[in-house]
Amino acid sequence: MFPSDPLTRATLRWGGAIAALLIVQSLVAAAIFWALLNASHTRDLEQSMAGDCRFFAQTPIAERTEELREMLTRDIHRERFLALFDASGRLIEGNVAGRPALPADRARFFTATLTPTELPGKQRDEARVTLCMLPGGQQLLTGFDLDDAEEALRTAEHALLIGLLPGFALAIGFGLIAGRRAARQVDTVRQVTERVVAGALDERLPVSSRPDSFDLLAAHINAMLDRLQSLVADVRGVGDDIAHQLRTPLTRLRARIERGMREASDSAGFQAVADAALVEIDQLLGIVAALLRIRELGDHERRSRFAAVDLAQVAADACDLYRPTAEDRGVLLDCAIEPVGPVDGDASLLIEAIANLIDNAIKFGPASGRVTLTTRQSDEGVVVTVADEGAGIPAAERDLVTQRFYRGRRDCHGAGLGLSLVKAIADMHRFALRFADTGSAVSLVAPLRQS
What we know:
Blueprint: H1 6-58, H2 61-74, E1 80-85, E2 91-94, E3 109-114, E4 125-133, E5 139-145, H3 146-197, H4 213-263, H5 267-298, E6 307-309, H6 311-328, E7 332-337, E8 343-345, H7 347-364, E9 370-377, E10 382-387, H8 418-429, E11 432-435, E12 442-446
Parallel strand pairs: 7-9
Antiparallel strand pairs: 1-2, 1-5, 3-4, 4-5, 6-8, 9-10, 10-12, 11-12
Helix pairs in contact: 1-3, 4-5, 5-8, 6-7, 7-8
């Protein structure tokens, strides 16, 4: 009965397939070796016979008989057939009784049945022969006894068969071992994916210290699971953040409306309550819009529409956009724009990122201070830097300020989404977002566009 265990079934199925492949490969290799051996033996015989024909063609007629007899004398194994015939087919000298008939296809080399004259007790013999015309009208028959050749081929055949038997055993053993290993690896993947589907997102595939191709695949799967776990955590975090961040303003909004309705005595009072409520609602809508914006940027779907962007021009446009705001707050916005090379990106997103950096610098920098925006080109690419005259973000908080809703200063306005949005745009463009070791400078580092 076929085993019911899935791992055993997979082992037998894959092991059998691998073993069958190895066995077929061994058979094909043996067949090729056999064919090459047979062809090589036949080619050696034919080359030797062609050499006999050339030798006797260059030998004077009077010396041919003596040369033939000397060659037969040197043939101690009695595997050669040599004979000279005159133009009428009469035997002049040799170790065969007569000349064989030519084959119907008139092939130069052919197999014929000869009657040997110098092999006692043997009346007929199979030989590979050729008949060649010699100068003077004589014919030379030269050939080789096939008994010894066939015996050598049979020996080689037996050796191949004997060698194939342990090869088959090794193929079956290796196939089962390899199939077992492959089945266990796939079963490991199956078990891990089942646990991941069940909610254990921290499950990972094992990767050995000396990885093979499967370990490399497992490493890629682990990276995919890391990304999946990160995305799920982000989704859960967004839900928690929304619930936490919106609860307080919604509670405040409800209390303000309730108090205003109790205290308002005329239409003007109710209008004031409604206006204040609209301001609160607009702030809440801004938070939701920013979250949706960050989620949209996380999909990276807009990368296909990237084009060459002049970051110097984008930075100049952001400066023009925020100069009135800076003047209203008594802040000097100084823009030192240098020409730079083009980068790949989306101009509307990049101006949004730079505008957020300028807005943060104006909002959190010293009152009546200076905000500086610079662009320059370095070995790393194009660098856009925004700095104010404040102390900047403490080193311990630099990883936190790019998280949603994080606000290092609780007395500041806003929802804590500005730098999160900048980080999302930078990640989408594969730019680097860097904070200066000292001071308040924040930089976007963009690689130059590949030509």
